């Protein structure tokens, strides 16, 4: 194993010692920075990773931080009175596309980072009403303290409720109301522009009886400023999780059976190793023995020197195109994650065996890198203040009816050369989660499978990546051959090309926008490019980072031998491949 493998071996050994024996050492986690940074020249909005898809800064003249609903209302009114555009940003800013980026000189940015204190639990009616800036982790804790549970949530707890609602974030389930957070919402308050006689802004309260409700449940920030969200709860329960490792031979025929048999099931697929991990995940009664937690390895605090050394070694491996070392590393990491149950801990400290049973609130989401004990400085591995991991994250949502065919195609591509997929398996392989059909206009109209895959991103936009043609072919296969919908908060720009055609109720969403935001106060050209799937002008090198699909060699990097070529399995794909 080379330098990167050694580095990450040290990393996972350190993580194991740190989290399985807290008496040995503690880490001084640096909480993520504010997404907005201001100086005398104005403000810059970053996402959590520090770089937008187009690598251009998002600049704005002014940022407002309301702390109450009344202050949020006044901020929207002031902007409307001055005929300014408005974009809302959360305290976390985890969206990869520029959904929240305003126009520099004719807009204001409103942050909900300080509008985060209101959590009103109605135990009798089993609902909770929250300010839109409330963090998911905080909400989960408060709900559990009341003896209740949120049924579903995203896996990462470092999100605001308003951000979750705006982008359709989700967990995994085909049971009950399903695994998408917005399908557990029973009410939502939105602040919209109004006439002068109404004070230039007003609060609209929506519920299932209102025809605008299904537009507001996934709004992309286009309808108004989300003020409060009312969410249904259930009596508190525990979860029991067992991860089953097996060969991927029958994956395309078994994924539905797993989702139907286990309420919160998901699947991780490591194609280079022909391995699947079936998560058998079910609710169990509160009196079931177990005090486990889910402290997902990828969301644990990592010492800065480890993150930076890892990235440096990864860059060297990419530079030398060392596929052998990459696969050795992937094998090591998959083995470590298996031995540590990917962060599941039976007693809150260590993993001792399956099943791992714990309270829903301690199993449904994780994010320990957000918090801080003391000694060695650490962060989330993607923290933009350090030279840590830097990657793309693609998220595609397939109709369950054709997902098996997608798996078969990926297997054909894998079977050309399994080692080509080691770069994917270094991260999370393919993570598959289950989403139930939704009535939300920008939700998924049939039972679906959401697939996430993460892969290396170069520091320079024109620098080729090892096996980048493989990831580009999978990306185009997903979004164009199989018409997968892109996750609104993830993906490179090409994933959104033609996206509006994939939503049968897209026009209903636009009709609702005309009612709630007739002056397009909450829209910008950047947002419209994403939502309407507009293709930008094809320029030299644009395909190297997914800003376009290549049609000429100049869209790749011909100087370094990367030319525009057809896909290996999906020949209609056009990818940048090293050709001489």
From TrEMBL:
Pathway: Cofactor biosynthesis; L-ascorbate biosynthesis. GO terms for cellular component: membrane. Keywords: Ascorbate biosynthesis, Oxidoreductase, Signal. It is an enzyme of class 1 (oxidoreductase). Residues 1-20 form the signal peptide. It catalyses: L-gulono-1,4-lactone + O2 = L-ascorbate + H2O2 + H(+). SUPFAM superfamilies: FAD-binding/transporter-associated domain-like. Its EC number is 1.1.3.8. InterPro entries: ALO_C (IPR007173), FAD-bd_PCMH (IPR016166), FAD-bd_PCMH-like_sf (IPR036318), FAD-bd_PCMH_sub2 (IPR016169), FAD-linked_Oxidoreductases_BP (IPR050432), GULLO2-like_C (IPR055154), GULO_Plant (IPR010030), Oxid_FAD_bind_N (IPR006094). One of its GO terms (biological process) is L-ascorbic acid biosynthetic process. This is L-gulonolactone oxidase. Residues 56-236 form the FAD-binding PCMH-type domain. Pfam families: ALO, FAD_binding_4, GULLO2-like_3rd. Belongs to the oxygen-dependent FAD-linked oxidoreductase family. GO terms for molecular function: D-arabinono-1,4-lactone oxidase activity; FAD binding; L-gulonolactone oxidase activity. The lineage of its organism: Eukaryota, Viridiplantae, Streptophyta, Embryophyta, Tracheophyta.
């Amino acid at each position: 194993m080379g330098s990167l493998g050694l580095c990450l071996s040290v990393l996972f050994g350190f993580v194991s010692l740190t989290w399985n024996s807290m008496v040995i050492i503690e880490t001084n986690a640096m909480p993520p920075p504010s997404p907005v940074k201001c100086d005398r020249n104005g403000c810059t909005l970053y996402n959590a990773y520090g770089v937008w898809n187009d690598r251009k800064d998002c600049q704005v003249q002014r940022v407002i931080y309301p702390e109450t609903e009344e202050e949020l209302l006044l901020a929207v009114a002031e902007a409307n009175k001055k005929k300014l555009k408005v974009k809302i940003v959360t305290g976390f800013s985890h969206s990869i596309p520029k959904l929240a980026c305003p126009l520099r000189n004719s807009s204001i940015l409103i942050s909900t980072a300080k509008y985060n204190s209101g959590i009103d639990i109605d135990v009798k009616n089993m609902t909770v009403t929250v300010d839109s800036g409330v963090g998911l982790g905080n909400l989960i804790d408060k709900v559990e303290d009341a003896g209740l549970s949120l049924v579903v949530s995203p896996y990462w707890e470092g999100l605001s409720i308003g951000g979750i609602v705006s982008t359709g974030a989700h967990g995994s389930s085909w049971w009950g109301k399903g695994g998408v957070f917005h399908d557990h919402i029973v009410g939502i308050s939105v602040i919209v522009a109004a006439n002068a006689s109404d004070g230039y802004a007003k609060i609209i309260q929506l519920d299932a009886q209102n025809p605008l409700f299904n537009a507001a449940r996934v709004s992309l920030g286009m309808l108004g400023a989300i003020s409060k969200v009312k969410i249904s709860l259930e009596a508190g329960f525990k979860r029991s999780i067992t991860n089953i490792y097996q060969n991927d031979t029958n994956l395309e025929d078994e994924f539905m059976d797993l989702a139907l048999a286990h309420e919160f099931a998901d699947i991780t697929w490591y194609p280079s190793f022909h391995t699947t991990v079936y998560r058998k995940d079910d609710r169990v009664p509160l009196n079931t023995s177990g005090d486990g937690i889910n402290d997902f390895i990828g969301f644990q605090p990592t010492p800065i020197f480890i993150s930076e050394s890892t990235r440096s070694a990864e860059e060297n491996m990419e530079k030398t195109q060392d596929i052998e070392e990459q696969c050795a590393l992937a094998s090591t990491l998959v083995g470590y994650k298996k031995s540590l149950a990917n962060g599941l801990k039976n007693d809150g400290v260590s993993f001792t065996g399956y099943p791992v049973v714990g309270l829903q609130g301690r199993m449904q989401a994780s994010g320990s890198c957000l918090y801080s004990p003391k000694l060695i400085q650490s962060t989330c591995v993607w923290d933009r203040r350090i030279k840590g991991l830097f990657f793309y994250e693609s998220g595609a949502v397939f109709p369950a009816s054709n997902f098996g065919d997608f798996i078969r195609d990926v297997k054909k591509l894998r079977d050309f050369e399994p080692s080509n997929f080691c770069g994917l398996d270094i991260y999370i392989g393919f993570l598959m989660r289950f989403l139930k059909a939704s009535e939300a206009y920008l939700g998924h109209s049939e039972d679906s499978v959401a697939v996430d895959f993460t892969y290396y991103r170069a520091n320079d936009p024109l620098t080729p990546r090892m096996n980048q043609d493989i990831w580009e072919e999978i990306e185009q296969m997903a979004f164009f051959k199989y018409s997968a919908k892109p996750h609104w908060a993830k993906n490179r720009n090409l994933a959104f090309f033609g996206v509006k055609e994939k939503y049968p109720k897209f026009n209903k969403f636009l009709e609702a926008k005309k009612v709630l935001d007739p002056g397009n106060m909450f829209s910008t050209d950047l947002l419209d490019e994403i939502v309407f799937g507009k293709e930008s002008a094809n320029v030299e090198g644009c395909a190297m980072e997914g800003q376009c699909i290549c049609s000429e060699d100049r869209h790749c990097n011909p100087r370094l031998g990367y030319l525009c070529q057809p896909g290996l399995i999906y020949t209609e794909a056009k990818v940048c491949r090293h050709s001489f």
